[in-house]
Amino acid sequence: MAAVEARGGGWGERETGGMEMRAVVLDGPGAAEEMRVRRVPVPEPGVGWVRIKVEAFGLNRSEYHLRAGLATNARFPVIPGIEAAGTVDLAPGGEFAPGQQVVAMMGGTGREFDGGYAEYTVVPVTSVIPVETTLDWATLGALPEMLQTAHGSLHTGLGIQPGQTILVRGGTSSVGVAAAVLAKDFGLTVLSTTRSPARVQLLRKLGVDHPLVDDGNVAAKVREIYPDGVNAALELVGTNVLPDTLKATAVHGTVCFTGMLSDSWTIPNFYPIGYLPNGVRLTAYGGESSDLPAEAFQRYVELVERGRLPLRIDRVFALDEIAEAHRVMEDGRAVGKLVVRIDR
């Protein structure tokens, strides 16, 4: 039986003695209901790549964009999934030992080559982070991309400092929850938004200092609390609300555009002087796994173990429930992370 050989591009063929695995394969864009689990060949890694036995993976908005045909760097057919958690099955270059706990993310995973929606995945060595933890697989599977995006947005995109104020726009998304928790742990005062009044108390339980109901006019609510505006703002909703987020930010403050939960990510006829308030900086973050050092990831994992980072998992699905998981993600019904646990 031929198997997939990961070489950073399309599927190659190599004999592997008939080994097969379960995976979700997208032949092209489609509805959530069209997602099905298939049996496909187990992928073979070349030197510089690592085969991971996947135990769990988190769902990410970018995977919805892929399925919906909104991704610009995708090739089909492809196994989606930009992250995974599990153990090393094979590392031909010897970079990792068999059985070693690892997570993997980004670097083209799930778009340019097959990703984590499978029992095994092959990824570049540069996308793999070793970890030692007693966390259950579902919890560990929720962390990689969520923490990488939150960490990178806060420290690379915003350059946060203890004592500052920060607004998280899109606060009940998985990255929004993580960003609020990490910012609070770093010594910031956190304002965070939700469109649902029913979720305000949940944000308070996560440690948010000022939960705000997003009615489209968040800037006015922010300036009722901080008349001069916040020092930093993390935009996770999209360009449709970005002008309002900019207005909530103080002179010499910074807004980092990271997410687009509204699927709105471009600014037509952008005129900087007319768009940007005086003295407010606009930056963006869309980094890679290398932006989250292994030691930082290990520290965050240990904080989760000790209950000091109360990151929220909304629901854990089985692989066969992938269509329902995508429906929940697409509809915005989750508060926190959606995770798939590989059931064998």
Verbal overview:
This is Zinc-binding alcohol dehydrogenase family protein. InterPro entries: ADH-like_N, ER, GroES-like_sf, NAD(P)-bd_dom_sf. Pfam families: ADH_N (PF08240), ADH_zinc_N_2 (PF13602). It comes from Kribbella alba. This protein is α/β, with parallel strands linked by helices. It is 25% helix and 27% strand. It folds into two domains: 2-143 and 311-341, Quinone Oxidoreductase, Chain A, domain 1, CATH 3.90.180.10; 145-284, Rossmann fold (3-Layer(aba) Sandwich). It is built from ten helices and 19 strands. α5 links the parallel β13 (189-194) and β14. The longest helix has 14 residues, at 144-157. The protein is globular and about 65 Å long.
Number of strands: 19
**Helical content (DSSP H or I, runs of 4+):** 10-25%
Q: In whole angstroms, how far apart are the ends?
A: 21 Å
Named CATH topology of the largest domain:
Quinone Oxidoreductase, Chain A, domain 1
User: Taking Cα atoms only, what radius of gyration do you get, to the nearest Å?
Assistant: 20 Å
